[in-house]
Specification:
about 425 residues
């Protein structure tokens, strides 16, 4: 019991350090994995050693996930450089005409659509530099523009194969078990975005639209040209193709994104082989650079998972985990609904942070079905992708509109708590 309490204390110490920006998650997770190994009494080397099992094997544990993320970032770069991203967004804006609410809803829908495939801060920036200026131009205030955009991004992320792959690898569940969870959260995210958009226009009114340029990029002339024709339309369907393959055929996320890359290359090849290949290679380099932080984070999560999953560790923390893990659906709903704010700042309810270790430890107790726990943690982890002040996409979006991330996200924290609790209830009923 004492060992379990000590580990929880370490959990919260690192959480505070990350919240106060004293240490980034990229370093906190591997440091914590090593400290956990020491506390549990793991040997330095060997099959269950800190070096061999925790660090080396742990860094490779989620390899398929972080390589898939790198490929998704490569795909995002190709979509941007070939003009596919610009085409999708600008067509949506044109569809709305001079009706600000319709424009906002159309762009939100397109953002959700794009981020079912795109991944990473680079993709958030590429899309945001087009979408956010339009939001501001049609009269949506800066704070609300940022929050609306991030709500749409997070809604798309829940159906993104890269994020689903991460959840599958951490939980050990199958795609068939968790596809329903992803669909429910995406639908919920769409409803959240819709209601927030309507609330914004009801509160601030339908202001005069298009009083400024729809795109404030100073290098507009350097932006990619829009794609046209049948092949252009098929290229714009790339996110749909990727998600459809994922849900229907349930194949590995890496393979899905590779198919997406091949698809868009076929649909956007311009006949100029040398320049086109150069663009693809440059996209590869830039995409992998954008995906590097997520890949590094996944290595740290893998180390933490191995540290927690080690038999010796499970033995020493079993009494404590048994004491705190709920055994009923009602207990899980109360437990998760009250503590889901701990998903912020990579906390113990965020499976893309400290929560990876907590989720695995709760699964080891065996009192709650694995799929239920995975679904609940996925629901809690949606919140920080939209409103955690330290999430890179949140920082970028807030800075882009000239605001501080904390003050920008304060407006939506309570409503996110309520929304997350509702999704936890729904998913627990569906899965328990």
């Amino acid at each position: 019991m004492i060992t379990g309490i000590t580990i929880i204390v370490v959990f919260f110490v690192f959480a505070v350090l990350m919240m106060t920006r004293k240490i980034p998650a990229l370093l906190a997770l591997p440091f914590m994995a090593i400290i956990f190994g020491i506390i549990a009494g793991l040997s330095l080397t060997g099959d269950e050693g800190i070096i061999d099992f925790v660090v080396v094997n742990g860094a490779l544990r989620l390899a398929s996930t972080y390589v898939a993320i790198l490929f998704s970032c490569w795909l995002a770069q190709i979509m941007y450089r070939t003009g596919v991203t610009d085409t999708i967004i600008k067509k949506a804006a044109e569809l709305g005409g001079d009706k600000p609410l319709i424009v906002a809803l159309a762009l939100s829908a397109v953002t959700i659509f794009l981020f079912t495939t795109l991944h990473g801060t680079g993709a958030v920036a590429m899309v945001g530099t087009i979408v956010l200026p339009i939001f501001l131009t049609i009269g949506i205030p800066a704070r609300e523009s940022s929050n609306l955009y991030l709500a749409a991004v997070s809604a798309g992320y829940t159906l993104n194969p890269a994020n689903i792959s991460a959840l599958l690898n951490v939980s050990g569940c199958s795609a068939a078990e968790l596809n329903l969870c992803a669909i429910v959260l995406t639908v919920g995210g769409c409803i959240f975005t819709l209601l927030y958009c309507i609330w914004v226009f009801k509160r601030y009114g339908k202001k005069a639209a298009f009083s400024a340029s729809a795109n404030t990029d100073e290098n507009e002339e350097q932006r990619p040209t829009m794609v046209k024709g049948v092949r252009g339309f098929l290229a714009c369907m790339t996110p749909f193709i990727v998600v459809a393959i994922t849900l229907i055929f349930k194949i590995n996320a890496l393979a899905v994104f590779f198919i997406g890359v091949l698809w868009i290359m076929i649909m956007t090849f311009n006949g100029k082989w040398s320049s086109y290949v150069s663009m693809i290679v440059q996209s590869f380099y830039e995409g992998f650079k954008e995906g590097a932080p997520a890949a590094g984070l996944m290595m740290g999560i893998g180390m933490l998972l191995n540290a927690v999953a080690a038999p010796t560790m499970q033995t020493v923390i079993a009494p404590f985990m048994t004491a705190i893990t709920p055994t009923t659906a009602i207990g899980l709903i109360i437990f998760a609904s009250l503590l889901c704010p701990l998903s912020l700042y990579r906390g113990p309810f965020n499976f893309m942070g400290l929560g990876a270790g907590l989720m695995v430890s709760m699964m080891a107790v065996g009192s709650i079905p694995t799929a239920v726990l995975a679904a609940v943690f996925y629901a809690a982890s949606r919140w920080p992708s939209q409103a955690c002040p330290t999430a890179t996409q949140v920082v970028w979006s807030a800075n882009f509109v000239g605001l501080d991330p904390v003050s920008s996200t304060n407006q939506v924290q309570i409503v996110n708590w309520i929304f997350t609790a509702i999704t936890i209830v729904v998913l627990t009923i569906l899965y328990f």
